[in-house]
């Protein structure tokens, strides 16, 4: 299983790219990078808690990350604010 620090680094890089794209008025690219920043941060959070957010083939399933993050880390674990429940879903739109 990958290290949570790798995904945290990816999240920060994606956030930086999102900010840059926004500054250049590339709104679709900024939205895409924003979504990936949120997804990668959620993966890092799951990994930090010892949870496996990957499908059996090792691939990231976006719906599984959303489900685990909300179910395990917000609803049951109370590790993150309830205000983050819809963040991945909103960014995907």
Span between termini: 29 Å
Mean pLDDT: 92
Stretches where pLDDT is under 50 for at least 5 consecutive residues are none
Strand fraction band?
under 5%
- Describe the sheet with the most strands: none
Structurally, the number of domains stands at 1
Shape: globular
Count of beta strands: 0
Helicity level: 55-70%
Query: Radius of gyration from the CA trace?
Result: 13 Å
Give me the secondary-structure category.
mainly alpha
The helix count comes to 4
The string of secondary-structure elements, in order, is HHHH
Structure commentary:
This protein is mainly α and 93 residues long. It has one domain (4-92). The chain is built from 4 helices and no strands. The longest helix is centred in the middle third of the chain and has 22 residues, at 27-48.
Summarize the entry for a quick read:
Helix content is 68%, strand content 0%. With 93 residues, the protein is an all-alpha fold.
Q: What are its keywords?
A:
93 residues, 68% helix, 4 helices, globular, mainly alpha
